[in-house]
Amino acid sequence: MSRLGETLSEMKQAGPKGGAKLFIFVTIVLDMCAVGMAIPVMPRLVQALSGGGAARAAELFGLLNMLWAAMQFLTSPLQGAISDRFGRRPVILMSNFGLGADYTLTALAPHLSWLFIGRILSGSAAGGIPAALAYLADTTPPEKRAASFGFLGAATGLGITAGMAFGGLAGSLNPRLPFWIAACLCLLNAVYGLFVLPESLPKTHRTPFRWRQANPVGAFRLLRTNPGLRGMAVVAFLVSLASQALPNIVVLYVGYRYHWDIWAISEMLTGWAICSMAAQGVLVSYAVNKLGERPTLMLGLVLSIAGFLAIALARNGPQFWWGVLLMAGGSISTPLINAFFSRRLGSAEQGRLQGATNSLNGVTGMLGPALFTQVFSMAVRGETQYGLVGAPFFLAAGLMILAMGMAFREVRS
Length: 413
Prior knowledge:
Elements: H1 2-12, H2 15-38, H3 42-50, H4 54-86, H5 89-108, H6 112-124, H7 128-139, H8 145-173, H9 177-196, H10 216-225, H11 227-243, H12 245-257, H13 262-291, H14 293-313, H15 317-330, H16 333-342, H17 350-380, H18 391-412
């Protein structure tokens, strides 16, 4: 953690550019804090409003996440094109206001339809993280972007860590209280950014807005037609799809298999976030300096595979924790994939690139909830052979193995 502290200290002393990065750090921390507060209680709120059991709640929770991802898929290229034409600042602010509206609706929701409306609003404004990645790409030399993206991952981990800790505590008092607090954080952050956030993309580097690029088909054309991006786009797709397993079923999974309450789940998620933050904020930079980017990427994928297998095979809580620690270590692969993409395009196309990759995440966000929640639902109902409850995590491990094989070929060439 000392390395992360040194990085923040350097930013404070680095003038406007360092101050902008520090502001992005604070912005992402607050946004992710709001997201983290909702994680321990959202599945339980879905279950309470639906009046069903764990299997029914898993299906509905998966549908909500699919809807959010569908809106992300449709609107991310548009937001990327807007950020290349008008700058990163308006997209980041729009994302904050959209999240605030989503959490307000969720806090007030008398029935499930309100949750679906909130997911539409939130998914339509899910451009904050991609815009922040483009922001860092604008202000960071190509050779230092892996560390900068790791820094952004640390900000994400710090925000989610604090959010889940407060969310677990607030949720134990009132299951809707975390959503009110999350809405306030997002809206206050949006107002703060409205007056303080500087723009990172100079007008001379901006590109004209084109509708043919501001849609999913045009966005994927960028990844498909660029030889330097095509293969790693497949890796990113597989990694993103496998990563859908944990957020979509872990709360219901540990509650069903280990009978954990909200506070125990919050402790687990907080520990996972802390370890992920340490991995991306400290381990990425250290491993890249010692091993290089390619071996570090492969190491992250191996740790992710081991983590999924450990979780699937865990018979009790302590064994499950080993899988969580391995998964946290495996998170170092994400900033390296982002750095690989970013270095292959100029600053004028960073918004379009991040819109395309975020739209790719939207596809996996639509497929992942349906895939993993249905596999979990079948396992709970005993419809899978041998009643294998850990089946979703075995599937995720298999996807990661495919990604590792593809990544080995790409980084070698």
